[in-house]
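Task: complex structure prediction.
Instruction: return structure tokens for all chains below.
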Amino acid sequence: MELDGPARPGTRAGAEAAVTALYQASALGLIRLAYVMLDDLPSAEDVVQEAFYGLYRRWDRLNDPESAMYYVRTSVLNGCRSVRRRRAVRRRGLADEPPAVSAETVVLSGEEREEVIRAVRGLPHRQREALVLRYYSELSDEQIARVMGIGPSTVRSTMHRALEALGRALREQS
Amino acid sequence: MTRLEDKIRRAIHAKADQVSSDTVPPLRLPARRRRSFSLAHGGGERMGAPAWRRWFAPAASAALVLGVIAGSVMVSRLVLGGEAPGGPGAAAPASLENAAAWVAGQVSRSAVVACDPAMCRLLRAHRVTHLDELLPTTATPVHSEVIVATAAVRRQFGSRLSVVYAPMVIASFGSGAARTDIRVTATDGPAAYRSALSQDLAARKAAGAQLLGNSKILFSATARKEIAAGRVDSRVLVAIVAMGAQQPISIVSFTDSGPGAGAGSPFRAAELVGAAGTNQSTFVQPMIALMQAQQGPYLPARASVMQLHGHAALYIEYTAPSPLGLLGPSNS
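Output:
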């Protein structure tokens, strides 16, 4: 049985301290990223909690701490995808209402911005993720590629297609 | 930057800023003693001492041999036109690494896992030992319980992989060519698998309906929906019954169906607390002892203390894949 004591690298206490520090430094940004994807704050918080819990469980197996942030970002994206899939299944099976944008939100954030967000959410998941990682997390093609597990050239073509689709969708709406 | 890009950036940032910076909840991690309560796979070994101590000696003695084997595999793959794997020193793509870590952490140690040679190497590095290596000459991948479907495996078996050999995805990582699915093998064929899955779902729904009527067991709204829909693993249901018979409990949530899992993949983990009025500090330890006393498939992989809203809570988790038919046929 492990005794409480000062955190040492390579111990569970060390892992806890490191994961907690990373959480404190990056949780807000990741919750916001998940919120943009899901439009649901409790689900966004859950997805981020799950990601850090997964990181904590696998801490011993990480080759270098730098990869921790990539691991968490990837987990958050996978978590968001799972939530969206589950929602789609529930909508089919239980006829649940899709998450609606409240009138208040529309007024507060501006109709045009909501239109853009709606159009982003209408994109295929890979395009949506690439777009949010670029324009919210400000990642480079190489960093996006690593988070999404695809090649940098695929990121570039995905971004190109996403921008084309968004341009079309926004022109149609206006 | 174009006007469109600027518009997108401003819209995404405005949306993100709706999340106030003072609303970040505290991180919930299992209590530090958690590894002592890991019940499967060697009683907490996997969360235990630094892995290098156990692996350094054999790894060092095998390094030369592995180098030669890896080199010959590279050459043979290039000759056969297969997918070039990362060499022994190269980092695997994130989706492969994530898939291997997930299998090591979630799949039962007694389950045989089918994998292509590159993935098998990664899994061995994660200390997964029951492997069925799929060579280019392997005709069918059904001598395993779980298949790690990398691009190479998908190419090798084509559409028969998802239609015939392994219809159910229990986790998925990455996308496009880098996508790696963890699939459950239909050892008796797809029709028998679908039938068993359907019967199991009906039995889980029936058992869930009974649990929802048990006055000693309370559920959060989400947990109630999930249990009614039959989305909870039968082993978790049995564990809940066993705990509810001891003292009133409250189910907070069900988790761990695997990232990207198919809708038929049930939740294998639960977070629960003592019902209102229970002394939470004395609730968890007896429940862990009860879980430790379970036998066979009902022995959880993990039963540990976690912090939930500042209180001690119990976390139980069973390994993947979820077994079918444990509850017997449904009468409904």
